[in-house]
Design brief:
Elements lengths: L1 H28 L3 H33 L1
Length: 66
């Protein structure tokens, strides 16, 4: 259970770093709005995955309490 929690935290932190890097690269590389939208969707998917992983950890914890 602890390993799954750490993995969820790493996915969340990695996604946040990716999102920050995308916004820093936007000005320097002159990315189009279309490319930025695609990269933002990737970040949104990463945050969604982290949320799902966190939910699974919570469910595992609820099942072990019983």
């Amino acid at each position: 259970m602890a390993r799954a929690g750490r993995r969820a935290a790493l996915v969340m932190a990695g996604t946040a770093l990716f999102w920050i890097a995308v916004h820093l690269a936007e000005d320097r590389l002159g990315l189009s709005n279309r490319m930025m939208a695609l990269l933002e969707l990737f970040a949104l998917a990463g945050f969604g995955l982290a949320l799902w992983m966190t939910y699974q950890v919570w469910r595992m914890r609820q099942n072990t309490k019983r």
